[in-house]
Amino acid sequence: MEKYLNVSIKEIIGKFPEVGRILEEYKIGCVPCTLGSCLLKDVVGIHNLPADQEAQLLYRIEKAIYPKRNVKRPEGKALTCKAPVGNIKYSPPIKRLVDEHIVIKQWLELIPSVLEEIDIESEAGMRWISDSLDFVRFYADKFHHAKEEDILFGYTDKNLDIIKTILRDHETARGHVKATSEAVKSKDKEAIVQHLSAYKDLLKEHIKKEDEILYPWIDRGLSTRQVGELFAKFDEAEARIDKGMIEQCEKFAHEAEEKVRKIKKRRQQNEW
Amino acid sequence: MNGEEMCGCPGSKMQDFRKDTKGGEEEGGTRQSQLRQWPIQLHLVSPQAPYYQKADVLLSADCVAFSVGDFHKDYLKGKSIAIACPKLDEGQDVYIEKIKSFIDDAKINTLTVMTMQVPCCAGLVAMARQALQSAKRKIPIKSIVVSLQGDVLSEDWV
C-alpha cells in the first residue's frame, strides 16, 4: 500500500476505477478533476476526515487495489459511513473569497440558458457576451483569482499538487476567456458556445474544490496572526481596485440570477 | 430540578467541582508566565501602549484565566491582553470606546474574546461586536467560550 500512497490519484483511478467510486462516497471528488496529479496520501490527508473514517477509507482503497490481500479491518463505525457534510466554518478572509464565489456562481448559472437561445447577430446578444467577458476578466480574475494567487497561496507551498491544480485551472479558464473573445470578433457562434460552456463547467468544479477542500485545508493551517494579516492584505488589495467596478459586477451577477429565475418560469409556463 | 436551580443565576450559582477535578500527576519545574505587559484591566490599559500596536489582542473575561489550566501556554502566548467582567464592571460604554480605539488607533491585527459559558459573559462578545461595527477599520474577531471547568466549548470567528 505504501507504494500507492505516493502515486497520483489519476493513475490509481485509471488502474482501479473502484477507488474513484469509493472516494466519491466520501465526497472526495477526484474523478472529474482535470489534472489528477495529487498523490493518494495527500488526497486522503487534505480532506481532514475523522480518524475512524480515514482508517475505513484507506482500508477500502487497499481492498480495492489488493482484493486478495488479508487487510486488517479497522474497528469502529460501519464501513459505508459517508463523510459528514455540514456547514463549513471559514475564517473572515477566507469567507470573503467564498462570498465572491457566490457572486460568480450567480452568473455561471445563467450561461446554459442564455447560450441555448443566444442570437449573436442581435445587439442584445453581443452585449451580454461582452458584459460577461468584462465580468470574468475583472471580477473573477483581476479581483478574485488575483487575491488567491498574489496573497493567499503565499501562505501555502506553491509546489504542492493541489495548488498546482488550482493554478492550472486558472490558466485554463483564462484560455477559454481568450478563445471566447476571439470567437466574438470572428462571430463564430459555435466557438462562443463551446468555450463559455467549458468555462462554466471548469469554474463550477473549481469553486467546489476550493470551497470544500482547499479553503478549509488552508484555514486549518493558519494561525490567528496569519488570519489577521490575510484580512489586512485583502483590504489593501481591494482598496487598489475600482469600487464602482466591483459594485457593477455584483449587480450584473445579481441580475443574472433574476434572469435565470425568469427563464425557468417562462419555460415552465410554456410546458403547461 | 429544585427551586434554587430554577431561579438562580447561572453565573453565580454555587457548584462544587472537587470530586470532578483531576489533579493529575504532580508536575515538576516551573512554567514561564506569558504575560508581557502591565496593567491588564480594561479600564486601566491604554490603547496607545506600544504592546497593543498591530498586536493580536486577547480580551478575556476575568474568570477565564482561573478556569483554563493552560491559559498562558495556549491562549496568552504571543498576545497582548485586556481583562474585564461584563457582569460586574461599571462604565461599559468606556469599554466599547476603548475596544474601538484598539481597532482604529492601535490598529490591532485580531481580537480574540474569551468568555465563560455563563449567559452574562456573552456581553463581552457583544461589546466587541459593537466596537467593531462603529470602528472605521475592520478586523477578524474570534470568540472562544470555555466551560466552568475550563474546557473549550466553542471557538468561532464572529
UniProtKB/TrEMBL annotation, chain A:
The lineage of its organism: Bacteria, Pseudomonadati, Candidatus Omnitrophota, Candidatus Danuiimicrobium. This is Hemerythrin-like domain-containing protein. One of its GO terms (cellular component) is plasma membrane. Residues 93-218 form the Hemerythrin-like domain. It comes from the Bacteria. Gene3D superfamilies: nmb1532 protein domain like. InterPro entries: Hemerythrin-like. Pfam families: Hemerythrin (PF01814).
